[in-house]
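Trying the structure run again after the queue cleared.
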Amino acid sequence: MKQHEDRTVLVGEDELEVREFLEMALKCLGYSVELAQDSDEVIQHLVSSRSRISAVLLDIMMPQRDGLETLKEIRRIDPQLPVIVVSGASSPLNVVTAMQCGATDFLPKPVVHHDLQKALHKALENRTPQEYVPPTLSPAPTASSFLSNSWQIQKLQLRAKHIGWCEAPVLIQGETGCGKEVFARELHANSPRAGKIFLKLNCAALPAELVESELFGYERGAFTGAFQKRVGMFEMANYGTLLLDEIGDMDVRLQAKLLQVLQDHEFQRIGGKEVIKVDVRIMSATHRDLDKAISDGTFREDLYYRLNVINVQLPPLRERTADILPLAEFLLNKHAQTGTPLPIITPELKQAMLTYHWPGNVRELENTVRKLIALRDPELLVSELRARAPKHLPSAPPVPNEPPARAEAPKAVGHEPPKASVWEQVKKAKRQAEADAIVAALDATRWNRKQAADLLQIDYKALLYKMKTLGVKDKGRIASARSSEKVPHLVVVAGGQG
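Done. Tokens:
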């Protein structure tokens, strides 16, 4: 057993009992052991130069990020490091997927001692020793996370490079699902910390006590259940970036401790006395109105000014109708399985997408596209989008060559003006939907009418006729074709939460 003492195995396992069993089994085999209970700790152990990791035992089901995502990140850090995936769901599909993501071997749970010894021998003993170089995260991909044809997005991408490089704290505000986390990752990728770790903590997803322990860590015995020391996110993100998502939901008492870290760049673990200094860039995101929260006493004004050095407002998807269809096509290609035909976004579905108000923003659009891939039933999605549409429809666009309205005749006492019939309301709603779809297609093609006709999948002359009858003549008539459409100025693809 002595021959393995210079070999360290990192165990990434969230279940305490399994983690303790693997630790005991590995020590019996003569290996040194490092423990991690989630994906972020696994990555932090690898980027730390304190100890050399010879192999990783990685559970496929991990909190925050699953084991396969962590495996891909490990391969980006060290393509040659042996990674043995452990899983209780040892189906052929899981085994194949793990191997495709770069796993060295696969062990089913419960792990048999002999199988563990054999897998480690195969992974380590036959590996050619190389001079050790502490691994570091490779720079993040520089491809933009944005998808839009508008010049506003090109301007935003240029701003992202400047904001990212200056390293000042950034507060990103916008509705849920509009892409706040994606924009934060874009800033990190354009910063001097791009090669370092990026961590995110959702302050609304955990109780205040757990948020504190996640951020600052704790010492062994600090409270009931603290069986071993835990490193917090501030330590793990040292020299990197930490995104505090939904910062508006953070408990006001915890805000004071966060303010101290921002001011002094140091803190103490829960139950600890050691002062830990860190160099972390803080980004924060929220869908709440922080000015109102300050007035209500639920958010500290001094913390607000610390976080709000640079403010970015992400508009909702309903203000960016010209980007709905390009986003849908992008998400369709992103989520479709390789080798399977893509489902068709029919003209009816396109029109329903363009006229829907998307309260869940890009995340809701992404879920709709994934449902289309799974069910392959565009008509069902059209019905669902129309059923969820607002009850109060906008007024119909003005009809060209219509005579000027006559002055209202005096109303007879005791008589109400006749209400429009249901059929007339349906016709008005249909005209409004057609006008919205046409203007959105023209916006998406920069008012190239031939390209817009192709996008709408109608004849070019039919488009011209529709534009004439609906009063859509040129860019100056946008306001007459739509009731209240704001100029789109940002589109972000939501790949994650936020």
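The chain has 20 helices and 14 strands. Worth checking whether this holds up in the mutant runs.
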